[in-house]
Amino acid sequence: MTEHPRLHSIPGGRDDRPRRPEPAPEPLWREVLGERLRSLRREQRETLVETAGRAGISPQYLSEVERGRKEPSSEMIAALAGALGTTLGGLTEQVAEELRARRAPVRRSQAVPTMLLRAA
Predict the structure, then answer these.
(1) What is the rounded CA–CA span in Å between residue 92 and residue 67?
(2) Domains of the chain in sequence order
(3) Is 53 helix (H, G, I), strand (E, B) or coil?
(4) pLDDT tens-digit profile of 60-115?
């Protein structure tokens, strides 16, 4: 009799089935926002202290926001946008564009089903 390889996982054993690579997780809004804020600040050759001072926040908090560690309120985002010479809407559009650019293609099996409505 010929032995067939096992096709299921065994705790501590080896699974010989080919695996699909896991897609990279989508970045979080706060991470992309922080990257964009840092980019705008650096384009203007400003320090954390200068930008934070105009926005009315501490440099430490701005640093945390730029690193994607804090989720600032919409009021705080608007203050930072103004301090960097843009608007809340403009900053939001920039972040949304970056999120779209990083979006991985969705396979059909991952797509969210849509409901079809019929007129009576």
Answers:
(1) 17
(2) 29-96 (1.10.260.40)
(3) helix
(4) 999 999 999 999 999 999 999 999 999 999 999 999 999 999 886 655 555 555 55
